[in-house]
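The methods section describes the discrete structure representation at length, but only in general terms. The central task, working out the structure tokens from the amino acid sequence alone, is never made concrete. Nothing conveys this as quickly as seeing an actual entry. For illustration, here is how one protein appears when written out as sequence plus structure tokens:
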Amino acid sequence: MKLARTLPELRDAVAELGQVGLVPTMGALHRGHISLLAAAKAGGRPVAASIFVNPTQFGPTEDFNRYPRDEVGDLAQLKAAGCDLVWLPDVLTMYPPGGATTVSLAGPALNWEGAARPTHFAGVATVVAKLFGQVRPAAAYFGEKDWQQVQVITRMVSDLHLPVEIVPVPTARDADGLALSSRNRFLRPAEREAAPALYSALAQAAGRIAAGGAVAEVLANAKAQVMQAGMAPDYLALVHAHTLEPIEELAHPARIIAAARLGTVRLLDNVPV
């Protein structure tokens, strides 16, 4: 497994490997990330992963310094998963002094996470565009747990005519349904026990809507179910799967998306309908 920490090292490695499948990460890897590696390997190309905790996607009151970091453990997992190249840039490489260009977004970036965290998706899109420019991958793999993020990146690639295929990978879950996340480690034992109620509520709601249930009533019941489990929902909505616009009756493709706070952790999840 090759490691690159500078742009010249990255260019040499990519020149040797050829076009790769890229898995962008912020480290603190778990089985969900490894499932992205597996999907990338199934694409038949060499696989690269990036590890970079991107400061521009954190708001001023968010957990940039608290975000878990474990480079040694991450590299061990990537090597065991058969990763061919790991790109480990520092902040000055990604954001040189005097930089004047960022990605501005509308469309699927505006609501939900975009409203709750107004600078978040601009930071995500900017760093992903930089990674695409540095690595020049043939394809990039993103987890469906962050459904809105996948739609934002897909739209950016389409709008900017970037020559990379965006491959969504199904959400990896624990046996009780909780979507895997690097932040789950911050859940206290009682919170971890309650956390799967979010997925349970969404899955039940999706089934009821698909069976013809009234959307507003089903969503209200799901929200109450989440609150009864001790969570504070930021939103729980039925949306068009690609535009992220809210819809009041079932149309396809559709998705139920949710964010809920549990203790110090903000849980995200979504299910198709």
In short: The radius of gyration is 19 Å.
